[in-house]
Design a protein that fits this description.
Length: 456
């Protein structure tokens, strides 16, 4: 191809399928890439798989294939996703069954990549001298090494490209880096070398502008959210990229907006150092990048530079970090905040008498400071005039028994505390807490395999 057109079909596990379905039906894309994974998603999927060996992947993707698989095949739109999560083969089987039922051609190929899940290898690697130092420089790995739930490596484009070379119509991976899902087809179709750092950086930023779905097209838009057209029919961004050009646009006849401001917001999202945005494929420099309007719902991106990729890859380790309970009580005017705070004091005295052993206790007031915390406006003029305030108390403990201690104390506050307390949502439940241990691992310690399954 002289130009590759790729749509961003998903921003996260649980995102709407509407924009992806519209994109497949009404745009001229060659590929659609769908990102389902976040830092702790794999830990959740790992727990699901332990309870049910057939689970552990994003079932949402199977539903998306039901809606788009046959149309995409007929229009020769290839689909790439990391929806495989912790059960890549399970996802492949489920997608294959759907496509078979829809009667797609017998030569339909599902590519899949394995090798990012190294959970079972961690104990031996630790014995061999891998330190797994925490990137945030907190904690001692010895304290969590026996509590590991999952360990997954962020990998780049290479094994995905290999699947495409083998003729895959759909590629399913585990923890491929979000932007690598987009870079792979760009490199494959345009023939760029992996160490052509400037072009690799362009491809990565193409993916970065699309990987969050609607967030790149007017969703979660700080600049002018009131004037985003037809947000109830929000379209997701599409990239058109070639050797010379790089544009972001969207499908016809859908809502949303593609403009300088929306592109710039997504461009800087999660980029800590604009001159050194590290990915598995390339170190990207966007410090001198230029984004300009190039027509209605169309922006041009220029002057992205790249530097050699990191020698190590990021490894996210999820581990069991105890248990938590989050509880709520609501209070209405008058004196809503005063009542809520007084109730919190009562509960803390009760829990102290119970000898609660908590790693963390978090008290906040929804409507006042549950989001802004210490920066919230807590002036008397504001808090004394609140129509309603919801008290939230959350505790984290090392055992279920300790976490449970707060649960039976909440409902009685409706009659045993300040007036007007309202208990809602049913009794709180003890939930497991999964901690995140980010670290690095040398590339040479890893091996990825690219496989093909034909739909028959």
């Amino acid at each position: 191809m002289d130009k590759v057109v790729i749509g961003g079909g998903q921003g996260f596990w649980g995102d709407s399928n509407d924009a992806a379905i519209h994109m497949v039906k009404h745009s001229n894309i060659n590929y659609m890439a769908c990102d389902y994974l976040a830092e702790l998603t794999l830990s959740i999927m790992s727990r699901q798989k332990l309870k049910n060996p057939g689970a552990g992947y994003a079932r949402d993707f199977v539903e998306l294939i039901k809606e788009t698989g046959k149309t995409a095949y007929e229009k020769d739109i290839k689909i790439i996703t990391n929806a495989g999560g912790m059960n890549i083969r399970g996802a492949v089987e489920a997608v294959g069954q759907v496509l078979k039922e829809q009667g797609v051609g017998e030569n339909y190929k599902i590519g899949y990549v394995e090798g990012d899940d190294i959970t079972d290898r961690i104990p031996k690697m630790y014995e061999e001298g891998y330190e797994f130092a925490n990137l945030d420089d907190t904690g001692d790995f010895r304290d969590i090494k026996d509590k590991i739930v999952n360990a997954n490596v962020y990998f780049g484009h290479e094994p995905i490209v290999e699947c495409l070379k083998q003729g895959a119509n759909t590629v399913i991976t585990g923890r491929a880096a979000d932007s690598a899902l987009f870079l792979a087809p760009i490199l494959h179709e345009l023939g760029w070398k992996a160490d052509d750092w400037n072009n690799a950086a362009r491809g990565i930023m193409a993916g970065h502008l699309l990987e969050c779905g609607g967030q790149g097209a007017g969703g979660n838009y700080q600049y002018d959210w009131r004037n985003v057209p037809r947000m109830d029919e929000l379209g997701f961004p599409i990239v058109e990229i070639s050797n010379d050009d790089f544009y972001i646009t969207k499908a016809p006849d859908c809502g949303g907006i593609i403009c300088e401001q929306s592109a710039k917001e997504q461009f800087l999202y999660e980029v800590h150092d604009p001159a050194n945005y590290l990915t598995p494929d390339v170190n990207v420099d966007i410090s001198q990048a230029i984004i300009t309007q190039a027509g209605e719902n169309r922006v041009r991106v220029d002057n992205i530079k790249g530097k050699p990729r990191p020698k190590q890859l990021k490894l996210n380790i999820g581990y069991h970090a105890g248990y938590k309970v989050a509880t709520y009580l609501s209070f209405a005017w008058p004196d809503a905040y005063e009542k809520a705070r007084y109730t919190a004091d009562i509960l803390m005295k009760k829990l102290k008498r119970k000898g609660l052993k908590a790693e963390e206790i978090h008290i906040s007031y929804v409507g006042l400071n549950s989001l802004l915390l210490g920066t919230a406006d807590m002036s008397p003029e504001l808090v004394n005039s609140m129509n309603e305030v919801v008290l939230r108390i959350a505790v984290r403990t090392l055992s279920k028994e300790e976490a449970y201690k707060i649960i039976p104390e909440i409902a009685p506050m409706q009659l045993n505390g300040p007036p007007g307390a309202s208990f809602f949502g049913g009794r709180a439940k003890v939930q497991e807490v999964i901690g995140l241990w980010p670290t690095l691992i040398p590339r040479e310690a890893l091996h990825f395999t690219s496989c093909i399954k034909e739909v028959r």
